[in-house]
Amino acid sequence: MTDLLTYRDDADDVEVPLLGGDVSDGVVRRGGTVRRPRGPHSPAVEAYLLHLEAAGFERAPRFLGVDDDGREVVTFLPGEMGGRPPHAWATDEDLLVQLGEWLRDLHAVSCDVVLPEGVSWPERVQFAEVPDVFDVPDVVGHNDLTVENALFVPAGDDPQGPYRLVGVIDFDMAAPTTRLLDVATSLLYWAPVAPPEARPAVLRGLDAPRRTRILTEAYGLDRAERLALLDVLAQRFARSWYAMRHAAQARGGGWQRMWDDGVGDRIRENEAWFASQRVDFVRALD
Questions:
Q1: pLDDT tens string 34-88
Q2: Is 201 found in the same domain as 181?
Q3: Separation of CA 109 from chain center
Q4: Does the keyword Transferase apply (predicted)?
């Protein structure tokens, strides 16, 4: 379906590489658009973006078509990403509320995504060593709500903040999931669920259990769901090491670079820290 939606350029704009992400190889800005190489997952993701547009969902890129070089074309969203490393203003707790509300609104229009004939989501990889985090998905999720993928603008005249969320980009990881798993994945970056000494400097003093409570309440999780989220986080950590190793072997590129840089060890360290701090998360979410 999306292969037939051709995007023609009106002007010969200069292409500027966008280098913010770990797996952003080949992603460029051209005028008011962003281009990225397509993969087996692209037709489903593109159909999902069209679904979001038809549903009237704001603060997400619009899929425009496929250019003459075979690349996916989406709208460029203005705004400043949370930073890499994160800006100090990106730790504002009000942003957690906005992110939780954005994720809730995304899921509200993502329960009934119907793909066009001939388009399907790539099969989710299973690993013999660990069970999957879920049996049946209940939504299509973003699955990669990192600090770099959230865009903000000042809410007033002060460039130091406060800021407000204006959009989330990079839907390349979008796929069927569960609400709790997508929330858990987002919390890895925004709580963050990692040892203080392993975090960027501005995140080291943050109270991760408290921040988890703020985002999950903004999303609308009740007490039972908040506590169930802790099991989802533990299951996700158990699976992530195998998933990252598989991605490095199967997809190479940025995935291989992350693996070579020790992301597998960091996953194990984060998993151990979360297990040691779980009682504090229970208190915060109860």
A1: 999 999 999 999 999 999 999 999 999 999 999 999 999 999 999 999 999 999 9
A2: yes
A3: 17
A4: yes
Cα gap 103→94, rounded to integer Å? 14
pLDDT at 13 > cutoff 50: yes
Using DSSP bridges, classify how beta strands 150-154 and 80-81 pair: parallel, antiparallel or unpaired: antiparallel
Considering 75, 90, 112, which residue would you say is the last residue of a domain?
A: 75
Give per-residue pLDDT as tens, 213-264: 999 999 999 999 999 999 999 999 999 999 999 999 998 988 999 999 999 9
Residues 70 and 114 in one domain: no
3-state DSSP assignment of residue 185: helix
For residues 87 and 70, membership in a common domain is answered with no
Say if residue 123 is in the same domain as residue 265.
yes
- For residues 119 and 7, membership in a common domain is answered with no
> Residues with Cβ < 8 Å from 118, sequence gap 6 or more?
1
The domain of 31 spans 2-75
Structure tokens at 277: 């701090």
Q: Long-range contacts of range 47-51, CB-CB < 8 Å, 24 or more positions apart?
A: 47/1, 47/2, 47/113, 47/115, 47/116, 47/119, 48/110, 48/113, 48/115, 48/140, 48/171, 48/174, 49/74, 49/171, 50/2, 51/109, 51/110, 51/113, 51/114
* Phi–psi pair at 86, nearest 5 degrees: -60, 145
The answer, yes or no, to whether residue 7 has pLDDT greater than 60, is yes
